Amino acid sequence: MSPHAPAPLERYRRSLDQLVRAEAVIPLGSQTFSKSRTALPIGASPLFIERGAGSHVWDVDGNEYIDFMSGLLAISLGYNDPDVNAAVQAQLEQGVIFSLPHPIETEVAERIVELVPCAELVRFGKNGSDATAGAIRVARAYTGRDRVAVCGYHGWQDWYIGSTTRDLGVPAATKALTHPFRYNDVGSLEALLDAYPGEFAAVILEPMNTTWPDDGFLPGVADATRRHGALLVFDETITGFRHAMGGGQALFGVTPDLATFGKGVANGFPLAIVTGRRDVMRLMEDVFFSFTFGGETLSLAAAKSVIDKMRREPVLDTIRRRGQSVLDGVTERVAAHRVDGFCSVSGHPAWSFFTIADAPPYSAFELRTLYLQEMFVRGILIIGSHNMSYAHSDDDVDTLLAAYDEVLPILRTAIDRGDLLDRLHCEPLKPLFKVR
After folding, report:
1. Which residue spans within 200-350 are E strands per DSSP?
2. Centroid of chain to Cα 121
3. Which CATH architecture has domain 97-295?
């Protein structure tokens, strides 16, 4: 930030005060890394939200936003969806957790088996990290091997996070067993499998993240994995019940041995799923994957309601249609406002990405800071991806595109005039670890 830059914006005064209070008792002031001050321009962004309805949220200062973060993709229908709320309220009157299983566990598991191509048996957890860690543990038990190949983001557990730069506290022996490979590059996976013949228990990847799979990529991954005697695991934490009800495996026609789901399946209630082939999943009778709250009924009631609503109404078709309007509209504006040299758009309509690259003399992080600052002040809550929900309206999309019509010229002008830092109400963002 330039010495002559504007002061922090008064519109976020209560957010800033709340951050001080929170950080006195909570590391980073947040339970989630990507909701913390490490990911947000402090002084130029909201930091705490009080409530949400549909596609809109209100921060602690009373500012209203159209939310294109959607609870980090956990909100699939919209905040306070009336059908989900009614189902949860009805279940709440029966109880939340019991001393024995509740029938709703079976009811939701049956729905997963009906909808997900690989699903024959189902277990529940609370976070996506629970499910991916469970899938890897059962794959190791089934194969008697230890190594894992990874592509994408798979949670905070040691087995995965040790392969990233956020590896503090992970034993070296654990790190050595996890090997990243590149998306849309079967050769990079083949090289790993060839380098350690007979040692890989599993290959786990997001079937799609920032880009579409090339023709032959997912079938090639499946073929290479199985030829080497490993299990194929699809991390469908985001793609499941968003790109398609049955996830990327249903969308792309490649069936893994195991798959994990989470986020949008319960519209914000904490639920994760590990599912797959019967012979592999049967090992869950011996592999220890056990949670006091694994059968918590409110989240399962929410999931049952979400799944039934997605079957009953054109939820994913609507998300896809409006998301495509976002993709097309932002792509047009990137070209029209002459920022295509450092800005690009990619991804699936339900989860698309606005990516900023370096544009000398400014780094991508400096440019991203200005972008976020200006989107927030226009009432758009976003972190660089467009996370669509059923509650987003055509008017919401129009408002988003109108914001891009104002913000992209600001980026262009800031570069041309060389005054970007003078425009910031905060310090520029710093590099974070890259997971995709």
Report:
1. 200-205, 231-236, 258-261, 272-276, 343-348
2. 24
3. 3-Layer(aba) Sandwich (3.40)
Domain-wise residue ranges, the chain: 10-79+315-423, 97-295
SS3 140: helix
pLDDT tens profile 187-235:
999 999 999 999 999 999 999 999 999 999 999 999 999 999 999 999 9
Separation in Å, CA 390 to CA 265, 305, 383: 13, 14, 19
pLDDT at 8: 79
Does the pLDDT at position 301 exceed 70? yes
* Same topology between domain 10-79+315-423 and domain 97-295: no
- Give residue-wise pLDDT tens across range 319-362: 999 999 999 999 999 999 999 999 999 999 999 999 999 999 99
- b/e string for 184-211 if b means 16 or more Cβ within 10 A? eebeebbebbeeeeebbbbbbbbbbbbe
Cβ atoms of 40 and 381 within 8 Å: the answer is: no
| 10-79+315-423: CATH architecture | Alpha-Beta Complex (3.90)
Q: How far apart are CA 236 and CA 72, in angstroms?
A: 14
Beta strand 64-67 with 56-59: parallel, antiparallel or unpaired?
Answer: antiparallel
Verdict on whether the full-model pTM lies above 0.85: yes
Return the half-sphere exposure (C-beta side, CA atoms, 13 A cut-off) of residue 367: 25
Nearest-CA neighbor of 261 among 406, 148, 155, 151? Answer: 155
Give the span between the Cα atoms of 250 and 231, in whole angstroms: 18
d(CA 393, CA 47): 25
- Spatial contact of 426 and 369, defined as CB atoms under 8 Å apart: yes
